[in-house]
UniProtKB/TrEMBL annotation:
PANTHER family: ATP-DEPENDENT (S)-NAD(P)H-HYDRATE DEHYDRATASE, ATP-DEPENDENT (S)-NAD(P)H-HYDRATE DEHYDRATASE FAMILY MEMBER. It comes from the Bacteria. Catalyzes the dehydration of the S-form of NAD(P)HX at the expense of ADP, which is converted to AMP. Together with NAD(P)HX epimerase, which catalyzes the epimerization of the S- and R-forms, the enzyme allows the repair of both epimers of NAD(P)HX, a damaged form of NAD(P)H that is a result of enzymatic or heat-dependent hydration. Keywords: ATP-binding, Lyase, NAD, NADP, Nucleotide-binding. One of its GO terms (biological process) is nicotinamide nucleotide metabolic process. HAMAP family: NADHX_dehydratase. It comes from Lactobacillus hominis DSM 23910 = CRBIP 24.179. Homotetramer. GO terms for molecular function: ADP-dependent NAD(P)H-hydrate dehydratase activity; ATP binding; NAD(P)HX epimerase activity. This is ADP-dependent (S)-NAD(P)H-hydrate dehydratase. Coiled coil: none annotated. It catalyses: (6S)-NADHX + ADP = AMP + phosphate + NADH + H(+); (6S)-NADPHX + ADP = AMP + phosphate + NADPH + H(+). PROSITE patterns: YJEF_C_2 (PS01050), YJEF_C_3 (PS51383).
Amino acid sequence: MEIIDQSILSKVIKKRKSKSHKGNYGRLLIIGGSANYGGAVIMAAEGALNSGAGLICVATHSINSAALHARDPEIMFLDWHDENGLKQMIPQMDVIVCGMGLGNDKLAKHILELLKKYVTSDQVVVLDASALDLIAQDKNLLLHQAKKIVLTPHQVEWQRLSQIRIQYQSDAANQEALDNLFPEKNAYLILKSSHTKIYDQEGNIFENPIGNPGMAIGGMGDTLAGIVGGFIGQFGAGIETLQAAVYLHSLAGDRIFKDNYIVKPTQLSASLPLLMKKYESQNEEN
Ligand SMILES: NC(=O)C1=CN([C@@H]2O[C@H](COP(=O)(O)OP(=O)(O)OC[C@H]3O[C@@H](n4cnc5c(N)ncnc54)[C@H](OP(=O)(O)O)[C@@H]3O)[C@@H](O)[C@H]2O)[C@@H](O)CC1
Ligand SMILES: Nc1ncnc2c1ncn2[C@@H]1O[C@H](COP(=O)(O)OP(=O)(O)O)[C@@H](O)[C@H]1O
Ligand SMILES: [Mg+2]
């Protein structure tokens, strides 16, 4: 197992080319936010926006549209009851992040079915929160055809999905469970805790050494899912991209925690552009 260190940031965060446009930095579809959990998808979207995603569309319950646009007019909205809209939108995007506040009703399941049907082998899918819980209840909802699939459970979500109780979530058991879920070997696991670990399917494991208890607050994982999506859209779906996303999330949290009793997820997101500028690579992206 390797410990992630700060050098991962300048390795992954590229200086932007002057000759570029929003399409070069990832088209993201973020799906989540039932009538009661709109905050979850807005926090994910703010993680993606502030970490540099080129273009973001949020598919959510229509009740969340005004709040989303009031906070972030940069972000597009799609009513998640609009099945035709979803069918058209899904294959057009580079990265799909799904699950934050999705809930577990019939519509939530149907959205996972649509994803399974319309995601292509060129796309990357990040699955979080309710999406993982729904798949734990019905493994038929799991999609396999994406180029890469990134799971971002906390330990209880991973327990539900892998059937491994928290105290038995050893590296070997986690890797075996990931391989059982994805025999195609196209998945990563970001297992969140106070020491988040990242697993690939080639036997590599990376542990995040930073972060703090001020980050133990609802929405912190939603924010991470958005950052992971934003980073994949800009820097590709390799293991180093995931390490940098996880590390940056905690580094941002630590900087706020130095002077604050708690770390608000929205405050963390707002601090990302400055932090990314500080740690960007000195060489232009190639
Ligand atoms: N503002 C919004 O709209 C927000 C909406 N959200 C949305 O809510 C939905 C449900 O998600 P969820 O994570 O709150 O519920 P769930 O999966 O039942 O987990 C809770 C249980 O797990 C435990 N537990 C958690 N982490 C643990 C850990 N690392 N290690 C160990 N234990 C841990 C925890 O423990 P306990 O409280 O019992 O001590 C409890 O038992 C989902 O769609 C999500 O996106 C949230 O994102 C928040 C902001
Ligand atoms: N004590 C802690 N130390 C470090 N990081 C923490 C701590 N508590 C929570 N976190 C981080 O906060 C996030 C919580 O994710 P999650 O439980 O999915 O939150 P939510 O679903 O409420 O958004 C994870 O990234 C986790 O690593
Ligand atoms: Mg969560």
